[in-house]
Give the backbone structure.
Amino acid sequence: MAYKHWLSSWLKAITALRTLYTDIALRELILKALTLPSSARLAASNRKLEREISDVYDELLYETLRERLLKQAEIASQQSEICYRAIVEDQTEMIARYLPDGRLTFFNKAFALYFGRSPEELLGSRDQPIILEADRERVAEFIALISADNPVVIIEKRVVVAGKARWTKWHNRMIFDEQGCFLEFQSVGYDITEFKQIEETLFQEKELAQVTLQSIGDAVLTTDAFGRIKYINPVAKFLLGCSETSAEGLLLEEVFGIVHEATRETVQNPIEQALKENRTVSLANHTVLINQNNQEIAIQDSAAPIRNREGQVIGAVMVFRDVTQNRLLSRQLSWQASHDALTGLVNRQEFEQQIQQALHLAKLDYQIHALCYLDLDHFKIVNDTCGHLAGDELLRQVTILLQEKIRKTDTLARLGGDEFGVLLSQCLPEQALRVANDLLLCVQEFRFVWHEQVFSIGVSIGLVGIDMNSESLAEIIRTADAACYTAKNRGRNRVYFAQTDDQERLQQRGEMQWASRISHALESDWFCLYVQPIASITPVAQKGDYYEVLLRLHDEQGNLVLPMTFIPAAERYDLMHLVDRWVIQALFSNWIRFVGDKQSTYAINLSGSSINDDQFIDFLYEQFTLHSISPQSICFEITETVAIANLSKARKFIQSLQQIGCRFALDDFGVGMSSFAYLKSLPVNYLKIDGSFIRNIIENPVDNAIVTAITHISNVMGIKTIAEFVENEAILERITALGIDYAQGYGIGMPRPLESILVG
């Protein structure tokens, strides 16, 4: 047993020795155990040894386990560090640690790559050089804010990268040890340059928008989705009569009350409508804003919803402007477009629209209306004698007279010049005739006083009914105009009621048709020139050929139409000045072919409208220059009636053209009652004695006496005489005996085409 016990102890000792062979104390114990002398002592020693070995073993086991755990912890720490570094290195954000003095103790790959430096350059270096100098003081102020109570601070700073400044953002944390001592900073950062650029662009755009909104002349305000005001610019504040602070947060309808200016009914808030319908809306044209100061301002606006990226409506914007002046101007322009500025009456355009409406009602509801076309008689005398101011005042006074004689439902209009129109609404023919006669009478009894001069005027009135059988607006006006013209032809100062089967109306319609044909003939060059010779019958008469230029018209079938057929229509519808210009251009443009260098005189008839046309003399000057024609070759003929109608104008016209060499003949002389009285005021070169005196000069002693008197007066005044309608030898002998200078008529020469005298 002792041996086994000893052997067991021995094996234990060997095992311990094998495991802990380096331990000196254990080695000594083993040596002692090997030298034990006896089993008793050995047993005692063995027990003691076992206890000692057990204690040593426990201690060794503890140390072994402790070292193993420390080793495992170290390995785990190393693995954690490796893992941490791997994670940190893989981050796109820059990560770095700094000592309190700013030296770098750690940085990841992103940090080094961003700044373009090697690890050797960065490790232990300070961060100040990489911060833009302009930001260093600001960054230092932020760093100074970090403390144990405030260990984290976020800093935006500009750093130098490749020689250029770039914006970065850093999350800085202060790290303390267990005792609370500051160890280092840990910073995580990333580049925000692009964000800053976008931010700057947005700021500039916002600033631009803000300045624009503050500066523009339109009022602008925005609301949230509930219609509460979020922004209001200065113009909006002014128009609404409130401040931004007092308006912000209020519902729009609390400061923005609008009504229809005519009906005074409340108009729906445009922002409310835009939010509700999710679309852009505009106010009606007649909206008025009643602001906080109880002022009424005419406005024009539009409102639109504001949407976020998802398309959800988050508010609305409204733009409005003060259009009070514009609306007033618009009303004025509208009034001016439909009214006569002198009299305040509706003008022709508006009047025709009302006639058109009356015609529509006549055909729709069988209503009966009437139209009066008024043309003042002797107005021209007042205008020419006293001037345009007097004429204008006369028209204003006549307007008042006429307005007093018509109903409120009737319309009085000035159609132009001295012409007026009256639309008698729902008026039977008999009643219309009574009204027309009342208008006639009031004008007859009227006396116009101007600077102690008293004038009487009259009025010619054409009356036409408007009923379901009326053809058109144009036909109604033409008929009324023609009826007025008939009233004038019948002696003036009367009413003429146009009837459906009226022969004069048919004649007037024919003239209207001729007016259209004349216009077409001018455009299509259907006119042609004829000439009739004027022969000198005294030795002292001028030398060379003398012709009167006559006008003819070829109709659609090629037939020749004499001037007596179309001239009245041309005069009636103010086309004669165009006809006169055509004659002059046609003659002058063919002058070289037909006249050449021959010593000839051509007499051209001029109408009253050309005499009164201020641009006509310039036209003549231009034609003389353009075609290199000597003015001495041209004699212009104007009728006595035309000359007397505007004596001062005719005299000025004659004198202007005589200065360049033109001559003038007074045509149809003797038919007027005061021919001789006016003759001394007109510096004409020739008198063409009216053919009515020449035709019967042989048989009628009165005609002979009149012609004798005209010839004598002409000789005294140094004016040459021309006898018209010289149809036979007997008449020619008589006028020669009387001393007349020239003769014209079928007995002298028939009219023939201009081409018949072609040179060569």
In short: The CA atoms of residues 541 and 741 lie 6 Å apart. The chain has four domains: 94-198, 216-329, 338-508, 517-757. The longest strand covers residues 164-176. DSSP finds 28 helices and 30 strands in the chain.
